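On clarity, I found the account of how folds are encoded harder to follow than it need be. An entry of this sort, consisting of the sequence and the corresponding backbone structure tokens, reads as follows:
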Amino acid sequence: MMQFSHTPQRFHRTTTTIPSSFSDISMSNKNQITPTTGPFRNRRPWPGLFPCSSKALGTCLGDANCMEQLLVHCANAIESNDATLAQQILWVLNNIAPPDGDSNQRLTSAFLRALVTRATNTGNCKILAAITTAFSSSITTHTFSLMDLATFVDLTPWHRFGFTAANVAILDAIEGYSSVHVVDLSLMHCMQIPTLIDAIATRFEVPPLLKLTTVAVVAVKEASPMLELSYDELGAKLVNFARSKNVTMEFRVVPSCHTDGFARLIEQIRVQHLIYGPESNEALVFNCHMMLHYIPEETLNPSPSPNFDMSSSTSSIRSMFLKAIRSLDPTIVVLVDEDADFTSSKLVTRLRSAFNYLWIPYDSMDSFLPRSSKQREWYEADICWKIENVIAHEGVQRVQRLEPKGRWVQRMMNAKFRGVPFVEDAVSEVKTMLDEHAAGWGLKKEEDHLLLTWKGHDVVFATAWVPC
């Protein structure tokens, strides 16, 4: 593994200060927590619930690991319909994890809200519906203008990393083509495309015709971020911008659904590909940015091991989608996604995985944005939406089904793609971009792939593929 930036010492989330409202809880010498007043008085003790003594409990409860354990116990109580225990844990979490606290507290608060939503949605612990407002408030969703969304994207390298790496790979792949058809599978409303247009205009003396097809995802409730412009308006702005750069551009949007592997999109691309075949000297580019994990996968049943053989699973919609792309013989496929595993059918497994991954955006926000910042509010609302989707929903509504890089690599190879390395220009461009952000962000290379890191922890991967 080649290291491109200094990897800081492994980050340890620190113990947080317990807010003053925690003083309403009394500690008994029987290792139990009992509220001194209100409807929780005289609830049963919690034997074995906490991994520390009563004397150390006050300090323990402020620790991220203990918060995670409380969330796990709460999830188990909700799933087993134990309303009494669930209420007790929710009460404690609500006191030690205010939504405006430090990064660990805000993270825990988001999971708390998601668990209450799950209890309400699933009908488990029905009594919790009556106390929902005491522990949770609805997620504030923001509808972005183009300027707001550009600012949102620029806050961290979370999306810019993939945009930057992908653009360099695409530019290299389309060299010599008179026409380029980019299929942009991204939830970021084509925010990558202006920089790609600018790069095409700069690199080529006679820019190729640029055809852009994007997808309007249907059947995803309040998918974040939301844009106040229609896609027709967005397309007109992109075409005008391209014209200003002397790039001729065509724009098309296809409504399609993740539940069937974007079948309508694939069919339209197939028809176009038949019309504009190889003899037309047109490059076909699939730019997949953090959207493919919306497609259903095998692990609706118990989660597979890291060495799971996906070549034996022919019924996977996710794998079938990749094979459909391969049948179109694309010039290049760029796949960028978050490096985590949210596919387990077990709630507690997903909770642990999400808790130990999504602390990263909360922690990174603390490094440069004040708590009163509207931008931070919008950014963390997006993370809250992800947490709620992972925890509170099941079936086709649960679209945040992230898979780690290794599993996607295996999927691509099974679909008869081979990886291509990112050139040094891509590495240089990404490093320059990271210099604009907080010191905790880093870059490393594993085989042909690039990884964005935060304080040494893998965050987002970028891969590039061509047909075998």
Observations:
- The domain at 141-298+314-338+401-465 is CATH 3.40.50 (Rossmann fold).
- The first helix runs from residue 54 to 60.
